Amino acid sequence: MRRPSTENSSDHALRVAERLALGPLVFEKIVEKRLLTGRFRVYDIAVPGNRNFFANAILVHNSGMVEALKLAMEQGTIRYETARRTIGPY
User: What is the rounded distance in angstroms from the CA atom of residue 72 to the CA atom of residue 78?
Assistant: First the structure.
């Protein structure tokens, strides 16, 4: 959907938020947060570009972590073995 050139980004963001709020989405209240200790396998799933997407009916966003880890590897501030386990064998 193309925005008219006269619409500024905050107006566009407000329109998107209104559509989301009035659409078939369900908003749930967070009832508990817990800090988990230990080692866990986690995944950084991303789609091309700077986008939001749905994963298991939850609206999520690209974290950008891959680029941050790539930069850290290039600067020598992180070991390849650690990054490889984190971002995959690129």
Answer: 6
- CA 75, 76, 82, 85: dihedral to nearest 10 degrees? 40
* Separation between Cα atoms, residue 67 and residue 89, nearest integer Å: 14
Q: Where are the domains of the chain?
A: 9-87
Tokens 């995944």 found at: 43
> Given CA atoms 64, 65, 70, 71 in this order, what sign does their dihedral have?
positive
Query: What is the Cα–Cα distance from 73 to 83, expressed in whole angstroms?
Result: 7
Residue for token pair 């939001």: 52
Quote the pTM value.
0.31
pLDDT at 30: 83
- Asked if residue 49 lies in contact with residue 66, where contact means CB atoms within 8 angstroms, the answer is no
